[in-house]
């Protein structure tokens, strides 16, 4: 979207699917909002005040810059600065592009002849006068080299909040994106559990669909529910770990500090944490909307298979002491571990040829 506006500012109005009939030689910054515009065109025009200060021009020959509308002057749009009076004083149309029309004679030291324009230009350095040997260059001022990037636009306009402590628990390898999204919603307590639906007036009795307890909230659903607790007990045994009984958000903080690193153990624990939350939530929805009830053994097996499937797609995981237990417990091949240089050197000295793993 911003890329389209940038090209429009550079009078390349027929690119990126934007028809030149929308502009017809007029400045993108100066046209009026039509009475019945399309949704896309209305949104683009509504963003002009936000985008205009960022798109500037480095003057060249002055032939492709709208004199009164484009952001080539330190004061910004001269039409907005001085009003329509400057059009009258210069006797130039509102969509004029040729900057050389503002000067008379060939003497570069000669001042502009029109009073209104003299107020705007007369005391500014010579860089604002056209140079016939170079073109006008649009500049995206958010980046040092002046080129547009979506990343810079996103960083400029997005709402920025404080960095959360649990970001590494939710995002980054080896997570599964659709699973991480559910975990992210759960940490923000934005999943539509019974207590939230009751606040919205969509549910009269927020009972837990897994154990029929009287209240369903995030803490109960994922850890205090008897159904969920039995699933967690099996998964924790598979991870050779024990997590204390804490409220939901406190448990997230505990998991953040406990699951920290790139070892096989940490990856298994991180995936197990994600996939358990994901499958408990899916089972909860299945019971409400599809009336399908799975025993906890089936859900637990689905969690284990999802974790194992993700681990089988990995390679070159750094090896640590104790990894053999996890390889055996999760039925994983040793090839997912990174072969150390020491082990490779020992094999070379022994004269035994072993197949090498291909690293993609």
Properties at a glance:
about 350 residues; mainly alpha; 2 domains; two-stranded antiparallel sheet; 17 helices; 2 strands; elongated; disordered N terminus; disordered C terminus
Secondary-structure map:
Elements: H1 2-9, H2 39-46, H3 48-51, E1 55-58, H4 78-82, H5 85-90, H6 115-121, E2 137-140, H7 150-157, H8 167-170, H9 177-187, H10 194-199, H11 218-224, H12 226-239, H13 248-258, H14 264-290, H15 296-312, H16 323-329, H17 341-350
Helix pairs in contact: 9-14, 11-12, 12-14, 12-15, 14-15
Write a brief structural summary.
With 360 residues, this protein is mainly alpha-helical.
Fraction of residues in helices? 40-55%
Structural class: mainly alpha
Strand content: under 5%
| Distance between the amino and carboxyl termini | 35 Å
Number of strands: 2
Put simply, the count of helices is 17
Largest sheet: 2 strands, antiparallel
Helices and strands, in N-to-C order? HHHEHHHEHHHHHHHHHHH
- Tally of domains: 2
Shape designation: elongated
Low-pLDDT residue intervals, each spanning 5 or more residues: 1-19, 104-113, 340-349, 354-360
- Name the strands of the widest sheet in spatial order: 1-2
Mean pLDDT: 81
Q: What does it look like?
A:
The structure is a single chain. By secondary structure, the protein is mostly helical. It has two domains: 2-157, no CATH class; 167-350, no CATH class. The chain contains 17 helices and two strands. It has a two-stranded antiparallel ribbon with strand order 1-2. The longest helix has 27 residues, at 264-290. Mean pLDDT is 81; it is low at 1-19, 104-113, 340-349 and 354-360.
């Amino acid at each position: 979207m911003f890329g389209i506006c940038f090209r429009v500012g550079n009078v390349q109005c027929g690119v990126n699917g934007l028809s030149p009939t929308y502009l017809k030689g007029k400045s993108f910054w100066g046209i009026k909002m039509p009475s019945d515009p399309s949704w896309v065109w209305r949104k683009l025009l509504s963003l002009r005040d936000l985008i205009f200060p960022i798109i500037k021009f480095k003057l060249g020959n002055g032939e492709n810059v709208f004199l009164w509308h484009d952001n080539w002057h330190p004061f910004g749009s001269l039409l907005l600065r001085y009003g329509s009076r400057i059009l009258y004083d210069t006797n130039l149309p509102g969509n004029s592009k040729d900057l050389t029309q503002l000067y008379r004679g060939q003497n570069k030291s000669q001042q502009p002849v029109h009073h209104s324009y003299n107020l705007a230009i007369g005391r500014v350095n010579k860089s604002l006068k056209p140079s016939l040997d170079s073109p006008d260059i649009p500049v995206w001022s958010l980046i040092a080299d002046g080129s547009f990037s979506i990343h810079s636009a996103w960083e400029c306009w997005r709402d920025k909040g404080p960095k959360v402590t649990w970001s590494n628990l939710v995002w980054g390898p080896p997570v599964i994106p659709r699973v991480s999204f559910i975990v992210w919603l759960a940490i923000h307590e934005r999943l539509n559990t019974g207590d939230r639906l009751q606040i919205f007036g969509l549910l009269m009795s927020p009972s837990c669909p897994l154990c029929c307890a009287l209240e369903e909230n995030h803490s109960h659903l994922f850890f205090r529910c008897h159904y969920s607790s039995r699933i967690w007990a099996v998964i924790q045994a598979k991870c050779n770990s024990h997590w204390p009984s804490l409220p939901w958000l406190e448990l997230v903080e505990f998991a953040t500090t406990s699951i920290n690193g790139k070892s096989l153990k940490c990856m298994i624990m991180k995936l197990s944490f994600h996939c358990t939350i994901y499958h408990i939530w899916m089972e909860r929805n299945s019971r409400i909307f599809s009336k399908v009830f799975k025993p906890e053994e089936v859900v637990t097996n689905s969690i284990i298979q999802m974790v194992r499937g993700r681990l089988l797609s990995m390679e070159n995981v750094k090896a640590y002491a104790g990894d053999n237990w996890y390889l055996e417990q999760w039925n994983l091949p040793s090839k997912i571990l990174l072969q150390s240089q020491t082990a490779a050197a020992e094999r070379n000295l022994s004269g035994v040829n072993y197949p090498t793993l291909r690293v993609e």
